Every structure is written in structure tokens, then in C-alpha cells.
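yo, Thiol-disulfide oxidoreductase DCC family protein is done. seq:
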Amino acid sequence: MSKVILFDGVCNFCDQSVQFILKRDKQEQFTFASLQGDAGQELLKRNYVPTNMNSFILIDGNKTYFKSTAALRVCKELNGAWKLLYGFMIIPKPLRDFLYGVIANHRYEWFGQKQSCTLPSPETRKRFL
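structure:
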């Protein structure tokens, strides 16, 4: 199975992040599932993630990554200079996750919220669970 990104499907910032990844993941390594969907909820259970987890989540094989670690691991796999962001892994996780949390806790306020998840285009539909 490819690497699966679980994201908040009603968050505008999260949706734009998925679109960003789709454009830069030329090897099509990542598939996506919204946290609100059945597939996302099943993956949370299967990987023993609390269902109230409100974070960007990367499932890579039998390893699950959260928050800043998940985001930076995704950046490492993208085409272009985005790989360089992985260097921020040297910052202690508590500090990285604190900064991640500031954005995550204000994402609806700063970027808005949708009433429902965006439907993927026909070209990218195969990458969504």
C-alpha cells in the first residue's frame, strides 16, 4: 500500500495542502483519506489512532506519524526544493509540534471551513480512499 495521508476534509487549509501535495508528488506515492470519511475512520482504528485525533496524519506501512513529523516526512518525498524542509526535523519535536499546533488550532479561523469535503477531480480520484 502506498503512503496514506489523513487530513481534515472540511478545512480549507488542509484541502489546499492536499492539492499542493498532489501537484508535487510525481511518483504518486501518496493516497489520501479525509478524517471524516469511512476510509479515514477505518484507518484510524486499524492503526490505533484515537478517533478524536485532529491532526495531519501520515501512515507509512506500519508506522504512523502525526503533526509536524508527518508534514515534514511528506515534504521529504515531494519534487523540488520542498525536500529541504525535512531539515527542520533537527528542531526538537515539542517545539515543532507547538508551532504546528498554533496553526492547527486557528486553521478554521484563519483559512475558513467547508460544509463538506471537496470531491477530487477525475484525474486524481484514484488517489483518494
